[in-house]
Amino acid sequence: MNTVNTIAPGARVVIRDAEWLVRKMDRTSTGGFALTVVGISELVKDKEAIFLDEIDTNIEVLDPVDTKLVPDTSSSYQGSLLYMESLLRQIPPTDEKLYVGHKAAMDHVPYQLDPAIQALEQPRQRILIADAVGLGKTLACGILVSELIRRGKGKRILVLAVKSMLTQFQKEMWSRFTIPLVRLDSVGIHRVRSKIPTNHNPFYYYDKTIVSIDTLKQDTEYRNYLENAYWDIIVIDEAHNVAQRGKGSSQRAKLAKLLSGRSDTLIMLSATPHDGRARSFASLMNMLDPTAIANPDNYGPEDIKGLCIRRFKKDIQDQVQSAFKAREISKAYCQATNVEEVAYDILSEMQFAKLDQHKGAGQLFKTTLEKALFSSPAACLLTISNRIQRLKKDDSPEALQDIERLSELAVAVFDITPVNFSKYQKLLFVISDKKHGYGWTGKYKHDRLVIFTERIETLRFLEMHLTKDLKLKNNQVAILHGTMPDVEQQKIVEDFGKEEAPVRLLIASDVASEGINLHYLSHRLIHFDIPWSLMVFQQRNGRVDRYGQEHTPYILYLVNQSVNDKIKGDMRILELLIAKDEEAVKNIGDPSALMGVYDIDEEERITAKAIETGISSLAFEQKLNQNSDEAFDPLALLMGGNESDNKPPAAENRLSSMPTLYNDDFSYLKEAIEHLRQAETLTGRF
C-alpha cells in the first residue's frame, strides 16, 4: 500500500470500500492531505467527494502493476467482447452528428432534428427554438438534450416551465427520451427543504429537476441558492415570458438573466418569441450570448446567427403530410333572445357621466362591459358589481349617475337565465344533437371535449350547468384557470391525457392555451368566447391541432347575433378575426403578423379600438391587410434574406452511430443477459 503523499492525480484508490479516481490532492492546515475524488464503482459513480487522510486512514492505492490477467474461458470470447462493447458505449461522440436523439420513442421527421444539428455546430449549445404552435418544440428540445447527455454534458439539468406545463414536460422527457426530471412544485421544494440542513442548497439535492418559473422568481427566497448552483443544461419553456418588456425588467426576466450565466447550455422554447420590438427580442438573444448584440435597437442577421431557429407549419408541410390533419372550422350563430336584446339595447345606448371621461391607454369600461356580456351574464354581472363597489367610494353626482345606469343594466342582465341565454343553449345543442351537432355523450374515454372561455365567472357558470344538463358526473368535468394552485393545475392536465381518468370535459381559461397538449384524447375544441387577439386564436387551437393528432381537429366558434346595429357591427369585427386567423395559418403561417404588434394585450387593444370607433369590418380588414403587407415578423428579417444560408444541413446526412461489435442494441442486450445467466449457473447462484 502506497503512502498518501505519493498519490498523484489520475490514480485509483479504494476508500470506504468504494473505488475512486483522484482529481487532486491538497495539504491541509493540520499537515495532512485532502483528496478530491470522483466515484468509479457502482454505488458512488460520478459522485464527487473530499476525503481527509487523518480521518480515513485506510486508503488503498490500486497499482496497475498488480493487475492480474485472467484468461477468458467464455464461448467465442463472449466475455471479452461484452467488456469491450461496454467500453465502446462509454466513449462520448466528439463530432456534430446525431447519435441517439433520433432513436427516441417518437416518429421523428427531419425538421425536428434541425435544432439539435444547428446547436451542435456551435461552441456552446445555446439556442432559441421558436417553431410555431403544435410543431413539437418539446421533442426538438429532448433530441438536443439527449445528444448532450450522450456527450457527458447533461449530468445536471434544470427545466423552467409555467405551472400548468410541469407534468406534461416531465412526462414527455421520460416517456420519449428516458430523461428523469424530478418535479419540484411548491410541495416538492418544501419537501426537499425539510430533509436537508437549513444552510444546504436545495437545488443540489436532485441533479435533474423541473420547476415552475413563478416559484423561482421569488428573489428573496431563492436568489442566493440560484447564485450558488450550477447546471450543465438549463431549459426555459415559454421563453417569451422572460423577455424584457419596456424599460424595466420583470421578475421572470431577472430570473432568466441570472440563470443564463449558471449553465453552459441554455435552450429556450417559444412559439411567440417576440413582441415586435427589437429590444425585447434582443434581451433573449443576449441571454443566449451576452456578446451577440451590442446595440439592442439596431442589429441584423449576423448578430444572431446560430442562436435561433423558427419554422411554421407551411414550411415543413412536405415532411409531415400524414402527421397534420387539416382542421375543420365551423361557426354556430346564437340569435339573441328578447331578454338579451333588452340588455344589448341598454348597453349600446349607455352614456357614463364619470366613467370613460378620461380614457387612458386601455379600453373603455363600456367596451369591457360589452366583452363581459359577450362572454356570459355571470361575467357581466361580476364586472358591474365590482365597478359599482369602486364608484360607491366616490360621493360625486357623476358617480351616482353611473351607479344608477350600471344598476339598470344589471337588472336587465340578471333576467338572462340559462334558459334564455342563447349562446349557452346553442352550446348544449351543438354538443348533444346527433344530426346537426357532435352527438357527444361523454361516454367514450377517447372522445373528450375542450371548451375555452376568457372569464372565470363564465367558466364556473359552464361547470355548474353543463354538469347537470349533459348528465355528467362531477368527476367527469374539470376546470382549469390561472388562480388554481400549481399542483392542482398539473393534476388536471395529467388526468385529461389519461385513458383511465374519469374526466371527459375540460372547461379552461386561457391559462390552458399556452403549451399544454390536449390532443391525445380530444380533437374537438369549442370557443365559448371569441378571442380579441389573433395570438390567442393560434394558442388555443394549437392545443388540439398539433403534431401527433390522429383525428381531424374540429374547431367551433359560438357567435353572438343581435338585431341591435351596434352589437351586430361589433360581432362582424370578431367574425373577421376568425376568418383572418384561418387565412394567416394557410398563407403566412403567423396570424400575429396581421396586426404587427406581436403582443396579446396590444392586439386586444387594437380590436377594442376598432369596436369603440365604430369602424366597419371592411375598413378593419383593409387595415389588417395593410399591416400584413408593411409589417412582417421581425424574425424573418433577422434570419437574413437568403433562406438557404440559414438552413441546417440535411438531417439524413447527420445521423450516425458509434462503433459497435454487435448488430444492434437488442443483440448486445441478449448476449449480455445470456452471459450473466451462464456465469451465475456456474457459480451456483442462479
Topology:
Elements: E1 12-15, E2 18-27, E3 33-39, E4 48-52, E5 60-62, H1 78-90, H2 110-120, E6 126-129, H3 137-150, E7 157-161, H4 166-177, E8 182-184, H5 186-195, E9 208-212, H6 213-216, H7 219-227, E10 231-236, H8 251-259, E11 263-269, H9 278-288, E12 308-309, E13 328-335, H10 338-349, H11 365-375, H12 377-391, H13 397-414, H14 422-432, E14 448-452, H15 456-469, E15 477-480, H16 486-496, E16 505-508, E17 522-527, H17 534-541, E18 554-561, H18 565-586, H19 600-613, H20 617-630, H21 634-638, H22 643-646, H23 665-683
Parallel strand pairs: 6-11, 6-12, 7-9, 7-10, 8-9, 10-11, 13-18, 14-16, 14-17, 15-16, 17-18
Antiparallel strand pairs: 1-2, 1-5, 2-3, 3-4
Helix pairs in contact: 1-23, 2-3, 3-4, 7-8, 10-13, 11-12, 12-13, 12-15
The biggest beta sheet is recorded as: 7 strands, parallel
Number of strands: 18
How widely separated are the two ends? 36 Å
CATH class category label of the largest domain? Alpha Beta
User: What integer is the average pLDDT?
Assistant: 86
Which architecture of the largest domain per CATH?
3-Layer(aba) Sandwich
Q: How much helicity do the residues have? A: 25-40%
User: What is the SS-derived class?
Assistant: alpha/beta
* Beta-strand share of residues: 5-15%
Shape descriptor: elongated
Radius of gyration: 30 Å
| Tally of domains | 6
Task: Tell me the number of helical segments per DSSP (H or I, 4 or more residues long).
Answer: 23
Low-confidence stretches: 641-645
Write the CATH fold name of the largest domain: Rossmann fold
Name the strands of the widest sheet in spatial order. Answer: 8-9-7-10-11-6-12
CATH superfamily of the largest domain: Tandem AAA-ATPase domain
